[in-house]
């Protein structure tokens, strides 16, 4: 059965909007674990737009499951990872102006820098996963570089506008899973998955961990709003 890794970046996004200390992604991670999450994922971006260095350090000390650190393959990030020692690092491409990660790594183009940073992480005892599109050449290149895991980018499947488009993208994910299995790679998947589109991907089998953030945090805001309003009314009306 696949594990669920909950990405708590957007809890930090709300905190950063006010520059205060809440909501704290560390508290969110603890609640996610209590609800059954089997891993916590955070993306420490170069621009620190949501998750901060302090969050990663505190999560490392407090979470009871597994910490998956998403990051760019830069010297700065590798230095932080070697200090914090997450259970896994998922290397992702990162552009400053993007709203979110916009696609998989080009493992073929960036093989030298990836190999260098992967080796440092692996020598430090950290499992490395490469975030790649469901593309045979990228998966084979990930294997050649010595990655233990790939995370299949599900964004194109999630963004498909037609049933046929969605079917085609799902077929690509399935082929990617079968190839990765043949190569002996561990397989995670994520990006854009929500309450409607995750089931067909899970049904393909072979995926060890789903990393899901935006849809879970979005839903939490809405399903939690009624209680939050009632509690404020109680305060105003003096109980
Ligand atoms: N996996 C990777 C590699 C990501 O970059 C992200 C977004 O930070 C996710 C999973 C989670 O995506 P979403 O927030 O769309 O569920």
Short description:
The protein is an alpha/beta fold. The chain is 49% helix and 16% strand.
Structural description of this entry:
- The chain is an alpha/beta fold and 239 residues long.
- It has an eight-stranded parallel β-barrel, surrounded by seven helices.
- Helix 2 (25-34) packs parallel to helix 3 and helix 6 packs parallel to helix 8 (163-183).
- The chain has helices at residues 9-18, 25-34, 53-62, 75-84, 111-123, 136-145, 155-159, 163-183, 198-202, 214-236, and strands at residues 3-7, 39-43, 67-71, 88-91, 127-132, 149-153, 186-190, 209-212.
- The chain has one domain (3-238): Alpha-Beta Barrel (TIM Barrel).
- Pyridoxine-5'-phosphate (PXP) binds at residues 7, 9, 43, 70, 90, 92, 100-101, 131, 151, 190-193, 211-215.
What structural keywords apply?
single chain, 239 residues, alpha/beta, TIM Barrel, eight-stranded parallel beta barrel, 8 strands, 49% helix, globular, binds pyridoxine-5'-phosphate
């Amino acid at each position: 059965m696949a594990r669920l890794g909950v990405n708590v970046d957007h809890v930090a996004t709300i905190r950063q909007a006010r520059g205060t200390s809440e909501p704290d992604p560390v508290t969110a991670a603890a609640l996610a674990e209590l609800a059954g999450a089997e891993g916590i994922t955070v993306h420490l971006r170069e621009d620190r737009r949501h998750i901060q260095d302090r969050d990663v350090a505190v999560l490392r000390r407090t979470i009871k499951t597994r910490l998956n650190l998403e990051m760019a393959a830069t010297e700065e990030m590798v230095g932080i990872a070697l200090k914090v020692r997450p259970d896994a690092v998922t290397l992702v491409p990162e552009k400053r102006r993007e709203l979110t990660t916009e696609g998989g790594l080009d493992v073929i183009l960036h093989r030298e820098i990836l190999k260098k940073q992967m080796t440092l992480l692996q020598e430090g005892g950290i499992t490395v996963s490469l975030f790649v599109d469901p593309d045979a050449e990228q998966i084979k290149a990930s294997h050649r570089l010595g990655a233990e895991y790939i995370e299949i980018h599900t964004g194109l499947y999630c963004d498909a506008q037609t049933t046929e488009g969605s079917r085609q993208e799902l077929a690509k994910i399935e082929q990617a899973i079968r190839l990765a299995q043949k190569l002996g790679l561990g397989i995670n998947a994520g990006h854009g998955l929500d309450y409607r589109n995750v089931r067909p991907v899970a049904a393909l089998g072979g995926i060890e961990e789903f990393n899901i953030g935006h849809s879970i945090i979005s839903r939490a805001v809405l399903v939690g709003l009624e209680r939050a309003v009632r509690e404020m009314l109680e305060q105003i009306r003096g109980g």
